[in-house]
Amino acid sequence: MHYRTTCRSPLGTLTLAGDGENLVGLWIEGQKYHGDALGGPLARRDDAPVFRAAREWLGRYFAGEKPAVSGLPLAPAGGAFRQGVWEILRAIPYGETATYGDVARKMALKTGQARMSARAVGGAVGHNPISIVIPCHRVVGADGSLTGYAGGLATKIRLLRLEGVDMSGLYVPRKGSAT
Asked: Which of 23, 57, 85, 159 is within CB 3.0–4.6 Å of 124 for a Cys-Cys bond?
């Protein structure tokens, strides 16, 4: 059984999902793929301990602190490939970004392959079910383009600025997947 609650944030309403012990989802209002991986209705349960912990974590985050990802019990739903990509995302430090190619190279090493498709990695990044906490917003194009973010490009920029990322080498492409 999965549960849900909502949480106010500077980005608007966030939806949190949990399995009773772990956070399994965190979506920004209007985000693509909202709840897709859970496949079914979520019962409302505002008082779950994991939701209290997530609200506290998010409060610290939006106050400019850098709470550890390990401070929350996470259980994102996804296959081994996606899990591997999300693990790499969790290792991207606050204030830094990584390219899809960087993540693909790390994933190739992790799986013992010579190469890994940055496009395949991009699919896993885009379907991250625990936004903000698993920092998919820290992944950018190889040329510094702020490509794709399921929560919207303006939100990606706000999160990167909040975290103190040097935005001078990053740009918004005129066309493409940045939405």
From this structure: 85
R_g (Cα) of the chain, nearest Å: 16
Provide the pLDDT confidence category of residue 151 given band limits of 50, 70 and 90. confident
What's the rounded Cα separation, in Å, for the pair 30 and 32? 7
For the chain, the domain total comes to 2
Q: Cβ(121)–Cβ(107) under 8 Å?
A: yes
31 has pLDDT over 90: no
**Tokens standing for residue 72:** 């929350």
90 has pLDDT over 60: yes
What is the full DSSP assignment across 111-148? HT-S---HHHHHHHHHT-SBTTTS-GGGEE-TTSB---
Residues 58 and 94 in one domain: no
Residue in 124, 122, 127 with CA at minimum distance from that of residue 36? 127
Q: CB-hemisphere CA count at 13 Å for 178?
A: 19
Please give the pLDDT value at position 146: 94
Active site residue 7: no
Active-site residue (options: 17, 26, 58, 136): 136
